[in-house]
Amino acid sequence: MSYDLIVIGSGPGGYVCAIRAAQLGLKTAVVEKWDTFGGTCLNIGCIPSKALLHASELFEEAGHGFAAFGIEVPAPKLNLATMMKHKDDTVKSNVDGVAFLFKKNKVETHIGVGSIAGPGKVEVKAADGSLKTLETKNIVIATGSEVTPLPGVTIDEKIVVSSTGALDIEGVPGKLVVIGAGVIGLELGSVWRRLGSSVTFIEYADRILAGWDTETAKQFQRIMEKQGAAFKLSSKVTGVKPGKKGASVTFEPVAGGPAETIEADIVLVATGRRPYTEGLGLDAAGVATERGRVTIDDRFQTNVPGIYAIGDVVRGPMLAHKAEDEGIAVAEIIAGQHGHVNYGVIPGVVYTYPEVASIGKTEDELKQAGVAYKAGKFPFTANGRARANRTTDGSVKVLADAATDRVLGVHIISAGAGEMIHEAAVLMEFGGSAEDLARTCHAHPTMSEAVKEAALSVDKRAIHM
Prior knowledge:
Blueprint: E1 2-8, H1 12-23, E2 28-32, H2 39-44, H3 46-64, H4 80-104, E3 108-111, E4 113-118, E5 121-125, E6 131-141, E7 145-147, E8 160-161, H5 163-166, E9 175-179, H6 183-194, E10 198-202, H7 214-227, E11 230-232, E12 235-242, E13 247-253, E14 260-264, E15 266-269, E16 273-275, H8 282-285, E17 289-290, E18 293-294, E19 307-309, H9 320-334, E20 348-350, E21 355-360, H10 363-369, E22 373-379, H11 384-389, E23 395-401, E24 407-414, H12 417-429, H13 434-438, H14 449-458
Parallel strand pairs: 1-2, 1-6, 2-3, 6-19, 8-15, 9-10, 9-15, 10-11
Antiparallel strand pairs: 4-5, 5-6, 7-16, 12-13, 13-14, 17-18, 20-21, 21-24, 22-23, 23-24
């Protein structure tokens, strides 16, 4: 079997790459080690977590939010099994959708572990141990990432769980300890807090959401604390000792000091992810890596001609939509076109409630780079629609170049922030200014008016503040 392109991995980067390549007339195949397509994102990551996030938000709203609107209902009862079924049904519909798209676009699929067997050769090892070798003109590595283990801590996916196990807890834990206060930890911790858990986050850094805009992260932490979450910052976990019905978590200040121990029914290890390249045969193929990531040039090609890489295995943020854009770009490059990814305009979203969304530069980055900028801010407490919806937590911040007024970054905390951030993405993709955004008519009353007001605030002329 010979192809123009073989993609190893069918996550968001891999399946999008394969479909785009097929659209461009390339004979394309995908090699996937799992029985279902979609990779971590669709099977045990983005999609199932969002199903539980939404369901748990509705549960909390029914239990605590309805009365203020004059809706009187009995206290809601949690049917966790049904909620998990909703999650599983959502996953199935998405992974089945990818399989359909492969058939529709005539992308051939091979189930098994793929490895590079030599120039233009991919070996596929099936679950029964049988081997087959595929020939191809080009190879794209799109194998994604895996959970980063915490040294000295054993994940059993029962008491001590990763993000995978946190999606399948059989009962609401009384006490949940989350090691790590990044995106994954905050999202999954918020799910179980809403369903009834007492949640404590232990974070090595001196803040949550390291790498995000500091002011935004601090504001969001205050909101999470108001909701009932507890945080132990600047703290390192020194041990997790499982017992018959839970685990003891020992931690101490990063700067030194006495250790503390807290008890938990479940411990979630959410300390990040690392590129997954096991069994790919990169060393034998001569593919260079750096700190675990496959090194590529500006055309996504490795040091070996004809072998490309995208997504979590290469540099840049580990985001599904970043991988998708890279998948499209590399398919177009292989087909002789000019694929391109603008890494300065890739949004990031924390799908908690409220959501946190960010794009472009943070204030920290602009200060470090010595860039003169102006900041415009607007709180949702001053937004009419937010008041009507009782969703006044959060704000919008617009950062613009002091000389040119070009928007350099936007940071939002709000219900629906993950949707609102895209008007900033479009604006920034076209090099727009704060003035452009401020003079763009926004429907009233909408939450998005706060974005316009923040843009007006850059020039100190916000109307409703």
